[in-house]
């Protein structure tokens, strides 16, 4: 039974921090059909992201801004995550993906020049994380319908970061300890 209910507001107190065992666990698949409990959990996760990206609400509730939140980051053992980001055209995209599977990827790789961050990590970790530039993912939506999604650039990085969480992988696990900073042209 989850503590999240309709209208529950996730705060930083709910975010599991580096060292929590659930962050290193391979999460269990979500059973179909999608239950109301699972829908509510995903809605609460997405609401956190919306609130965290609103400067006034982020300040009021002391939220760190985030673009993605996986279930284990709020203590839930389910293969699902929420994401909220802007496309290059300024369009806001809301994702609530259940049981995502990477089905294809580009040969090309990219990274965020400033490095990646994580709501579960309260320290600065410097280094680049190589990610596929383009990916295709099969996943269920909140209504239990299966879709194939295509991501490129920032959205591909974000989705790979969140999917790593579902397998107990933290972004810093992917930083080359010998050469943390890349110079790809």
Notable characteristics:
single chain; alpha+beta; Peptide Deformylase; 5-stranded antiparallel beta sheet; two-stranded antiparallel ribbon; globular; Peptide deformylase; EC 3.5.1.88
Describe the structure.
The protein has three helices and seven strands, in the order ααβββββββα. By secondary structure, the protein is an alpha+beta fold. The termini are far apart. The model has no long low-confidence stretch (mean pLDDT about 95).
Question: What's the SSE blueprint?
Answer:
Elements: H1 36-52, H2 55-61, E1 68-70, E2 80-86, E3 92-105, E4 109-110, E5 131-132, E6 134-140, E7 146-152, H3 154-166
Antiparallel strand pairs: 1-2, 2-3, 3-6, 4-5, 6-7
Active site: 162
EC number: 3.5.1.88
GO molecular function: metal ion binding; peptide deformylase activity
Average pLDDT score: 96
In CATH, the architecture is Alpha-Beta Complex
**Topology order in helix (H) and strand (E) letters:** HHEEEEEEEH
Strand content: 15-25%
Judged by helices, strands and strand pairing, the structural class is alpha+beta
Give me the Rg, rounded.
Answer: 16 Å
Number of strands: 7
- CA(first)-CA(last) distance: 49 Å
Active site: 162
Cofactor: Fe(2+)
InterPro entries: Peptide_deformylase, Peptide_deformylase_sf
Organism: Oceanobacillus sojae
